Structure formats: C-alpha cells, structure tokens
From TrEMBL:
This is Adhesin. Residues 38-53 have a biased composition (Gly residues). It comes from the Bacteria. Keywords: Signal. It comes from Bifidobacterium simiarum. Residues 1-18 form the signal peptide. Residues 31-55 are annotated as: Disordered.
Length: 516
C-alpha cells in the first residue's frame, strides 16, 4: 500500500472517540437501548418502560390490545363508517387472533398519546389501524386515517399479520407516528396511498424491530420531522411509481443487512444539513446501530437499489450516500442523482464515533457500489477501515475523483485496517472522467473502458511506481494494483425478485406486480 500511504493525510479521518456515548435509535423511534443490552424495553426521553422488548428477533409483547372496532378471531366488515379512538394505547381498528377486517370508505380517527414509545413503535399499541398475529388480515380501501397523538402510526402490521391497503390517505401530526409500518414479520401491501407525517421519527414507509415487509405501488409521500425519511428499513421496503418529499430528513435510511428497492419513482429531500443523530448530512444513510432493532435481516448485505428514478437532495455538505458500521450493496440504473457535487460527496464510507454505532477504529463500512447504464458525479471517499468497490458497468460514466483518509482510531496493522479502501472497476462500455489527481488502491479497466479527463484525453495511470498507461492528460491516477480484467458478482446486479403482490391484486382486481 505504498501509494496509498503516501496519499493519506495523517490529519484526516476520524479522531478517536472520548467519553461515554449511548446507542441512539436513529429513525424509527425516539427510544433507545443501553449499549450491551439491546431491546431491554427502555424508552428514550419522555417515554416509559414497555412490557416488551426482551427478544428483538421474536414477537414478545406481553400486554393486551384494545380498539374502538375489533375483529378478534372473527370476520368483520364495515362500510361508510366513522370510527374514533381517544384513549391512550387504543387503536381505532384492530384485527387479531386470525380475524379478518374489511373496511371500505372508512374514516378512522386517533387521538391521545401512547404511554410507551417502545410499545407504540414495535407492537402498534397506539396505531390507527393494527393487524397482529399470523393469519390476521385487514383490508382497507377508499378510506381516510388521521392521528394527532404521539406514537400513533397510521397502518401497522406485526407478528406476521397482513394489511392490504388501497386508495387511502394517511395523516399523522406527532412524533413516532409513521404512515405504513411493519414489525416482527408483518406485511403491508399498498397501492394509491397518500401519506403525510409531521412529527419526528415518523417515516412514511417503515419497518422496524423483528423485520417486516412494505410494498407500495403508486403513492405520494411527505414527511416534515427530524429523523423522518420517506423510507426507513430494518426489513424490506419496496416502492414503484411513488413521489415523495422529506423536508426535515433525508430520502431514505436503512439499518442492518436489509433492503430498499426503488423503481420509477421521484424522491426528494429539501433538508440541507444533518438530521437526527447523523454523523454527517446525507441523502441516503446505510448503517448499523447497537439498538438491536435491526438484528433481523433480509440478506448477507444491506441492499439498496434504484432504477428509472430520481433521487434529489439539497444537502450542503456530507455525502449523497453515507455508509458506516455496515456491509452494503448499492445498484443504480438509469437513475438521476440530483445534488450539489461541489458541496457533498457522492460516496462516503467511514467509521464513526458519534452514536456508539460499533467500536471506534473497527466500525467502518464495506460497500459494493454499482452503476448500470448510469450517470454518476461526485467524489468518492473512504477511510482506512472501510472498503469501497465502485463498479462502472453497461455504459456508466462516473465524473469525479477519489480520496482515502486515515482513521486515527485504528492502529496501523490492526485487523480492522482495509487492504484496499477504494477499488474502481470500469467495464468495456463505461468511462471514468477523472476530475483531479487521484490515489486509490486498485483500478481494473476492461478492454474498451476509458479513463479520461473532462476533455476526453487519456489519463496517465501509475502502478507500483511504474507508468502502466501513458496518457496525454495532465491528470494522473496512482494505484497499488492495476489490471485489465473486471470481475463482477451477484452483488452488482439488480434484484430478480420483489415482494409478491398477488394478494393485493386479488383483493382489489388490480395488476401491480413489478420487477427491478
């Protein structure tokens, strides 16, 4: 790593953390668990101890539910009715114990704060519409849901329950009040949804503790609170034909080795700075905390993919994509990234000492970041305990440079130090437009691939002290390793499967299946 060592600024990177920090749950809720004891049921400031939370992987709520309208092990239908719940920890509508609840042209109203953040966030105790338990199913269409109390999620599915929601509007105004939220294996299949949240920790689409699945086709999403991205995943969140704007948070956040898939959508964040407990401002954050809420996973790596979409962020610093304490695969295809590349990086992978998200000095990120038929612009950065493998495939052009910074919390020669912090791969149809002299770990350029400057002149490439490509540009890329072979894996491909929407289509006579 001779070239890299010479290029790294010893003053750069993250300083070693000092003092004691506490695990902060970033998006999903205001509550938190102490380090080393994830899921102990302790709530954050202003909350009270809950009855659940001992086992973050399995549904473990020991309390009972109550609602103004209940289908408890029975089939119930309601049409053109208004139902209101005003008590703490009371749902407007509830289906449990294998029951079935069908709501058509309904108005559901929820007021009154929840008494426990954990119970509201993980078990849906104060939600407007709640489905709980395997074989429990709620079907709602043509309806309107409103909530003014804290901890009042709009539609909530937990403990392997299912909710089918079509042509419905959801509005919540207080903290910890998401639009669609699934936990502990719950599933929400939705279409033609308008969801608006105004409180902190209130994503419009979310999964949380124990994992869950949310699939939305056609929708309009709006959030206003801090820590309230449009999409938040500790499970599987998938959207197609969706438009959304977040004014107080980033576009999307993912914790753990989970999934976000975006197709044919336009998602915007007008937030200019940091939100919640973020180490830096970002458009998309992929990370792992120590709260225990993302121990369930959908794969071996976090997966974020966007196709035929627009992701727009107003951040004035930081990075469009920020990674820390995680392993992630990102694939972008024909997707517009709209952000100020002079103010923010394209990719930033690093360790952190902000929120006890892992141990400082060994909590970097490993990232496979792939463009397929994609325009990428901006700087790529990684610290010495992180790894970024950038793949430019199928006619992708990346315009930018890269840099590696030293993580000062990591000792030289420790196991956490990366062998290759940044590797760039350029296939035979793709181009790297280099904007500044760059030193990286490795560069692989297949026959036909181009590494040029903004005028189209060939950039000089030096490896191990030797010139391997003699260019006519004033710019130079210096690497430890250079080859003319690009090898790809399944981590660089678009997903072949999406959440099965056949139950939704059967219920509403629609055809909403889609693929990446």
């Amino acid at each position: 790593m001779i070239a890299i060592a010479a290029a790294i600024s010893l003053a750069g990177g993250l300083a070693a953390g000092a003092g004691t920090t506490f695990a902060i749950r970033h998006f999903a809720a205001a509550s938190s668990s102490a380090p080393g004891a994830p899921g102990n049921g302790q709530s954050g400031p202003g909350g009270q101890n809950g009855q659940g939370g001992a086992n973050t992987m399995s549904y473990d709520y020991a309390g009972s539910y109550s609602a103004a309208l209940t289908a408890d092990g029975t089939d119930k239908t309601s049409k053109n009715a208004t139902t209101a719940a005003t008590k703490a920890d009371q749902n407007a509508a509830l289906v449990q114990n294998g029951g079935s609840l069908t709501l058509t042209d309904a108005t559901l109203k929820k007021s009154g704060d929840g008494s426990s953040d954990d119970n509201d966030n993980f078990y849906g105790t104060n939600s407007v519409l709640l489905a709980v338990g395997e074989d429990s199913k709620a079907t709602i269409s043509g309806s309107k849901l409103t909530a003014t109390g804290s901890g009042s999620n709009g539609i909530f599915a937990t403990d392997s329950a299912t909710v089918l929601a079509n042509n419905t509007t959801i509005s919540t105004t207080s903290a910890n009040s998401r639009g669609l939220d699934a936990t502990y294996g719950g599933t929400i299949l939705a279409g033609s949804i308008t969801a608006t949240t105004k409180g902190d920790h209130s994503a419009t689409l979310a999964t949380d503790r124990g994992g869950g699945s949310v699939s939305l086709v056609k929708g309009t999403l709006n959030t206003a609170g801090s820590g309230s991205p449009l999409l938040y995943s500790t499970g599987d969140v998938q959207v197609n034909d969706v438009t959304g704007t977040a004014t107080g948070s980033q576009i999307a956040g993912m914790e753990g080795l989970n999934t976000i898939l975006i197709s044919n959508s336009t998602l915007t964040s007008t937030n200019t700075g940091k939100t919640g407990s973020d180490p830096v401002a970002n458009g998309v954050i992929i990370y792992q905390s120590t709260s225990g809420d993302a121990e369930a996973s959908t794969g071996e790596h976090a997966t974020f993919q966007a196709k035929d979409s627009t992701l727009k962020s107003a951040i004035e610093s930081g990075s469009m994509f920020y990674f820390t304490n995680t392993t992630a695969d990102v694939v972008l295809s024909n997707t517009t990234l709209d952000f100020d590349t002079d103010a923010a990086n394209l990719i930033q992978a690093e360790g952190n000492d902000s929120n006890n998200w892992g141990q400082a000095g060994s909590n970097g990120a490993t990232v496979n970041f792939t463009g397929r038929n994609q325009q990428l612009r901006g700087k790529v950065t990684a610290d010495t305990i992180s790894t970024v493998n950038l793949y430019l495939l199928e006619g992708t052009t990346w315009t930018g440079s890269a840099s590696i910074s030293k993580n000062t919390s990591a000792s030289d020669g420790s196991d956490s130090v990366s062998d290759a912090p940044i590797t760039v791969n350029v296939d035979g149809k793709s181009t790297w437009v280099v904007t500044a002299d760059t030193t990286i770990s490795a560069l692989n350029v297949a026959s036909g691939g181009k590494v040029v400057d903004s005028s189209g002149r060939t950039v000089t490439i030096k490896s191990d002290g030797k010139t391997v490509v003699s260019g006519d540009s004033d710019l130079t890329v210096t690497v430890d390793s250079y080859s003319t072979t690009v090898k790809t894996t399944n981590d660089t491909k678009l997903a072949s499967d999406t959440i099965d929407r056949s139950d939704f289509d059967s219920a509403f006579g629609t055809s909403t299946e889609w693929t990446m």
